[in-house]
Design a protein that fits this description.
- The complex is a heterodimer.
- By secondary structure, chain A is an alpha+beta fold.
- Chain A is 40% helix and 15% strand.
- Chain A is elongated and about 110 Å long.
- By secondary structure, chain B is of the alpha+beta class.
- Chain B is 40% helix and 15% strand.
- In chain B, strands 1-2-3 form a 3-stranded antiparallel sheet, with no helix packed on it.
- The chains are: A alpha+beta, B alpha+beta.
- The interface between A and B is medium-sized, with 33 and 32 residues.
Amino acid sequence: MEGEELGVERGPAPAQALAAPLSLTGELYRRLSAAETGGLCLQPQGAEEARAFVSAFLKRSMPKKEDEAIQDVLTRKAVVLEHYSKKKAKPQRRKAKGFTAKQRRELRLFEIEPEQRRYAIFLPLHELWKQYIRDLCHGLRPDTQPSVVQSKLLKADLHGAIITVAKSKCPSYVGITGIILQEFKHVFKIITKEDKLKVVPKLNNVFSLEIDGFVSYIYGSKFQLRASERSAKKFKLKGTIDL
Amino acid sequence: MAAAVKDREALQRLSFLFQAAHWVLPHSPALARFYSFTQRGAARRLVLRLAPSVKRMVCRRCCSLLLPGEGGGQRLRGRGQPRTVLRCRTCGRCRRFLCHGQNWDGPVLESRPT
């Protein structure tokens, strides 16, 4: 009984609720009477003024679009007036063992040490490298076939080698000579005789490496690997080799 | 036999990197760190074992060379069971070992499991 009454009561109520907003919108958008505007110090605008204001406002807010484009946008798309961007705070679980790349960057690499950037300092490193390479190829210099030497050089480490840029797509790189200090994925860091630290990209460059009369050419485009990963990689002959 | 040869070349490379890092250390500890990092990366790629004495000379976190005086200090701590504590000076990471018959050899890389 009560429920029915309640239901009955509620019956017209939603209908009224539905009707109410329609009339409310009529209430919302009708022109303000003079009494109300006088109190609020508002200037009621005519229809043309209002339209002009709106189009000027749109032009200002979307300066790069023309009128037609603006109209197009407004008719086709819904313009979001307020933009909420949800930023999820990701819980960062950092291992205590590792370092993030940012932290690594500020620590590790060759920070500018002007006193240390002298070519003469690294010449003994080059001697060490030569010994290592001789040991690697068992020192039979005139006898060994170049292919054997090449295959060993592919897996060998190049830190400390004296390297020259033989050919390059960019002419300013040709002729740079120096000792390899660091090998990264796409670049070599080389110190030249003038004590300059040069960063030479591997891509589109041909390097020539000399050891005990053996000159070997390294096509840098095929060599775009981190130094540690190169020793694990098997190189296949694929495609033409030209810069 | 072929596997041994490949290993030997790779091991020579690791050994060279290690020696180079030690050599460069007085001039640029940053460069020494880079070489140790490359060495560790190469060893990881090729799944090679490094001798524990070698591993202990390189900090696990920041890869700097730990030499007494330069990178890492060594202390004895603990009363009940005395431990050797190695501390890396650059990143502050500690490694603790129980003291029982440790050999601190020079840098020697062995391929067989220790």
